[in-house]
Amino acid sequence: QLQLVESGGGLVQPGGSLRLSCVASGFTLDYYAIGWFRQSPGKEREGVSCISSSGGRTDYADSVKGRFTISRDNAKIAVYLQMNSLQPEDTAVYYCAASRIGNMCARRNSAYEYWGQGTQVTVSS
User: How far, in Å, CA of 56 to CA of 29, rounded?
Assistant: First the structure.
């Protein structure tokens, strides 16, 4: 069974940093494009960032550009989202998702077949 597991969420003060990890079990991520999404109460799920299977394509939502960095380590079967300068508006459940169409990078929900269960990120003083 294909599974994605996110970790690294938690409570952080404004201006702080967190690094989220997305690990696969049951398959390797080598040929999959990965997206990071987030959803806060009362809002639609938002595409935050994405990375192609080779790592050659990345994209970011305007709200996180310059603060978040996506990277992947296929040898470790993981994709990371480094989040710096966190603000209260970044508070959400963060999800990673995988697409079998590896040579792409998209921040729309419909582009991905596999989803993790999410990890909570809370930014508060």
Answer: 15
Q: What is the DSSP letter of 85?
A: S
d(CA 53, CA 62): 22
Q: What is the pLDDT of residues 53-112, one digit of tens each?
A: 999 999 999 999 999 999 998 676 899 999 999 999 999 999 999 999 989 999 999 999
Which SS3 state, helix, strand or coil, does residue 62 take? coil
CB-CB neighbours of 9 under 10 Å = 19
Q: Give SS3 for 49.
A: strand
- 94 DSSP β-pair partners: 38, 119
Local structure of 54: helix, strand or coil = coil
Q: Are 117 and 7 in contact (CB under 8 A)?
A: no
